Amino acid sequence: MATKASPSKKGSSTKKGGKLVSTVALFIGVLAVGLYWVGIDSIVNGINLALSGYSGVCDQYPIAKPEGFNDSEFDYFNDPKYLQRSVELLGGAVRIPTETHDDMGPLGEDSRWAVFDEFHKYLKESFPSIYSKFKVETVNTYNLLLTWEGSNKDLKPILYMSHQDVVTVPPDTWTQWTHPPFSGHFDGTFLHGRGSLDCKNNLIGILEALTYLIEELDFKPQRTVLLAFGFDEEISGPYGASQLAPFIEKRYGRDSLALILDEGDGIHELAGTFFAHVATSEKGFANIRLELHTPGGHSSVPPDHTGVGILSEVVTDLENKNLQKPVIDMESPMASHLQCAGKHGKSLSLIVKSILLHLDLKPIKLLLRWKMKELFSLVAYLMTTTQANDVIVGGAKANALPEYSYLYTNYRVANGDTLEALNERYLKIVTGVAKKHGVGLYAFGEQLIAPTKAGYFNVTNLQPQLSPAPVSPKNDVFGKLAGAVRLTFEEFQSYPSIIVTPSLMPANTDTKFYWQLSQNIYRFAAMSGMWETKIHAVDERVEMKEHINFIFFIQTLTRVMDTYTEI
Ligand SMILES: [Zn+2]
C-alpha cells in the first residue's frame, strides 16, 4: 500500500477510566432521552431485534469448500517442503530491489527502471507453469497483465492485483536492519526484507496459488483469471496502474469483472474475536496548496501582519474551526464494521454493544459525533475527514519582509463527506482571513476576491483530488470471499471462528484506477498479525506461515469463484 495511517493512542489508562465512567453515565442519560425521543415503536423494534439475535446485522457466510476439495490438500500446504519452496520463491523476489523513488524520471530515460527487466526475467524463470498456461503481456513497458482464458465466456473474469515495486529504503536506515533490506533472509519464522509484506508476498503468493492449481490439480478454469501487476504503486501509479486499468477496460468494457482483489488489511483479534477486515472502500484524498504573495520591504518598517503571520492565521483557523466530527454514514464500511464488532465482539460490554448495534438511531449518531474520539479513538479517524497541515514555508531573510509563503494541507476524506463540501469548508476559512487582512483570493483557477496592494492568496491542488471510493457491496461475491477466508483460517488453521467484516482502507491502493471495471472491489490480505510487522519501515518482514495462508486462500477463492455462475 502506498501510505499507512497508524491508529492514535491517547491518554493514560486512569484518565481513560475516569473519562469512560463519565462517558458511560452520559451515554445512559442520552440513551434515556433518546429512547423517549425515538418513541415506543423503536423500543419494541429494538427488543425484537435483540430477541432475533440482530439478524441481518453482520450475518456471516458459510465456509466455502471448492468442488472436489480433499482434506489431504491441507497436508500438502503444511509440508515443510512446500514451505522451503515458498521461502525460495519469495526470497528471490525480495532480493531484486525494485524500489520506486519519488523523483523517478520518465520510462526509458531514468535507468533506475531497468531493475524491472530483471524482475520480469525472475518471474518467468520461477513460474514456468504460469508462463505456459497464461498469456503474458506487458503494458507501458513494465506493467504485467497475465490472462488465463476460461472456457465459459458468459462468466465475468476475476482479477487479482498486486504491485511489483517496493517503497525506497532510505540509505541512512540500511545499517538499522537486523538483516539487510534486500537479503530475503528466512529466520525459520519470518522472511525479511523490503517488499516482503508490501507486497511481493501478494504477487508471489498469487503465482504460487495458481501454480498449485495447474501443477497439482490440473485445473482448467471456466472463468477467466486475470493478474494485473503495476510497477509504481508506491509513487501513486503514474506509469503503472493508471495505464494498465484503461487497457483492461478497453478489452473487457465497463463493469466487466466479477471480482477485483488487491492488497489490504488482514485478520486481527479485537474484543476477544477474530475479525477479517475486507476493505470495501477507501478514503478520499486531497493535498491543497495555499500560496500567499505579499509586498516585500525592509523589516524595519513592517505592516502589523506579514505574509507569514497571515498564513499562520489560516493554520490556526483551519485547526480550530475546520476539524470535522466523525461522519456516521450507514452506507460506509465503517458503520458495518462497528456493527459487526457490536454483534460479535465477545469481550465488549452490553452498553458498548448496544451503542454499536444501534448506530442508525439518531441519538446514537449524535452521541458518536460528539464523543467518538473518546469512545473509539482507534476508529474515529477512519470515520472522520482528517486534516493535517504538513508543510509551511515563508520568507527568505531575517531582515526582509516575506514576499512568498505557502502551506500544504493533507485531507483524507471520509465516506459520507464529499470533495465539494471539503473545498467549501476550506475556502470559507481562507476567505475569512483574506477579507480580514484585505488580500485577494484565487481558488482553483477562479478569482474570488481581486488582488490588492496587500497581496493575494492562490489555492491549488498539489495532486488531483480523489473522492472516497465507491463502496463495494456485501453480496454473494463478498460471501464467496468470506467463505474462502473461513476455510483458510477455521479449517486449514483451526481458528475458533472468523468474523468477516467490511472495513475501510485509510490509504489508497492501485484500485483507485479500477473503479469502472467492477462493483466488487475488495482490498484484503488473508493473513493475520500484520499490525505486528513493519510495512514501509526498518525490518519489514512476513511470517511465512501467514504467507502460506494467503496462498491457500487464493487457490480456494479461485476454485470457488469458478463454480459460482451467477455473475
Ligand atoms: Zn502495497
Automatic annotation (TrEMBL):
Recorded hits in SUPFAM superfamilies, A to Z, give:
Bacterial exopeptidase dimerisation domain, Zn-dependent exopeptidases
Concerning Pfam families, the annotation shows: M20_dimer, Peptidase_M20
Q: Does the keyword Transmembrane apply?
A: yes
Give an example GO cellular component term for this record: fungal-type vacuole lumen
Residue ranges occupied by any Peptidase M20 dimerisation domain in the UniProt entry: 281-436
Active site positions, chain numbering: D165, E233
Q: Which residues bind Zn(2+) 1?
A: D198, E234, H536
Q: What are the alphabetically sorted keywords of the record? A: Hydrolase, Membrane, Metal-binding, Protease, Transmembrane, Transmembrane helix, Zinc
- Naturally occurring in which organism (per UniProt): Tortispora caseinolytica NRRL Y-17796
**Keyword Zinc (UniProt):** yes
What's the superkingdom here? Eukaryota
| Molecular function in Gene Ontology | metal ion binding; metallocarboxypeptidase activity
Q: What is this protein called?
A: Peptidase M20 dimerisation domain-containing protein
The entry sums up its family as follows:
Belongs to the peptidase M20A family.
Q: Which residues of this UniProt protein bind Zn(2+) 2?
A: H163, D198, D262
Q: Which Gene3D superfamilies match?
A: 1.10.150.900, 3.30.70.360, Zn peptidases
Segments traversing the membrane: 20-39
Name any Gene Ontology BP term: proteolysis involved in protein catabolic process
State the taxonomy lineage.
Answer: Eukaryota, Fungi, Dikarya, Ascomycota, Saccharomycotina
